[in-house]
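## Example record

The block below lists the input lines for one assembly entry, exactly as stored, with component labels intact.
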Amino acid sequence: MLAKRIIPCLDVRDGRVVKGTRFVDIRDAGDPVERAAFYNHEGADEIVFLDITASVEGRRAIVDVVRKTAEVVFIPLTVGGGIDSTTFIQELLQSGADKVSLNTAALRNPALIREGADQFGSQCIVAAIDACRVVNAGQDAELKWEVYSHGGRKATGRDLIEWAEQVEEMGAGEILLTSMDADGTLDGYDNEMLAAVTGAVGIPVIASGGAGNLEHLYEALARGKAHAVLAASILHYGTYSIADIKSYLSSKGLPVRPVNI
Amino acid sequence: MNELVIVDSGSANLYSIFKACEMISLKPKISDHPGVIAGAKAVIFPGVGFFDHAAKGLQEKNLAAALLEVIADKKPVLGICLGMQLLFTESEESTDSKSATRGLNAIGGKVKRFPADLPVPHVGWNKVVPVTEHPLFNDICSKTYFYFTHSYYVEPDQDRFTMALTDYGFSFTSAAADGNLMGVQFHPEKSGPAGLRLLGNFGKIIAENY
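Predicted structure tokens for the full assembly:
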């Protein structure tokens, strides 16, 4: 049986990490390579770099970050943010990334998912989806979520479940699902949204947005049926270590990869 | 003679495996030249992507003959992921028809697609249970997690070729060997400390072979 994955997400701007307060013990807390190595050492199962660089020129920095990370970190590495062509996907994969996550560019041009999957294999292509609950859908109406693009700034009118089924059909190997309602609240993942997506698609779903405590992580995996949890704040601010998370999940009966092997 | 050659068949990201080898003090050379590969002391044969494209590429670049020569000389060879699958007789993975695609046939057996009721690709960390005594798994505990990402798996035609098993709804061969010819379905270069240890064991097999 597959282990449930714990994935730290590092936001990177112009080649520097932008969040985190617990890293007094590493030389340069803003260096994504050092931070990735730190989490690798702590027992993370994968690392995600989310490039939030605004400028096209600044994006070159992420290629260098990936290359340097791949020299010292021997666990899977996913890169997302501003990836809009198979040429750029290829460059990232050749630099040592294992997967790329596609978001806005895939909404604008869904064929990019198929092209990426055909050229590099489904295992490399992660569809990142940001979604928000649709309120006022009527009291008896079923829950619905709308997909947003541009880092959650633009409503697309697309229904979450339809889009999730479409990205799977086009060859995405995984879905990285962020609840915009839950993101940043530390109140827990949107488990109803997770369960709706994991029930609709066969590919693995990574839960993102809202984790504030260990129970939240467990709930996303057990109730939401997520295959992996992405965590930022609770790791970067030192609320929990990867070992804390894994020993808790393990005590609740979930399979996790032990940290010290 | 080169120490260790990583075969560049054009279908894999070689950067991570190259760096992982360096990390454990192996000094590999990346090559797509049949002469260099045939003259290597040992070979790592990685691969991702489609079986039929890769199998065709090996023939076109004359790499198949070079690999078979290395294998016939009983030099240590480690196939990784698709590289392991290509060591087998044939694969169900074929884009043009219902007919199977031929591999190198260095280990007898078939490459099959996971049953439709399982989530595919099989992506993530799963337990590997060695079932034979092979130095590739020295000092690696049974049920150690390794990182997988694949949609097809190998089914050797003789049980003795199965070096390790992994459970994904059913038990499949996650590592195979015939003496110095070895293959792993998982990615040691992405499997953290356990993966580096396995590559280190491969390094020891090379050293003991000479």
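Helices of chain B lie at 15-23, 34-38, 51-60, 63-72, 82-85, 192-209. Residues 45 and 108 of chain B are 18 Å apart (CA to CA).
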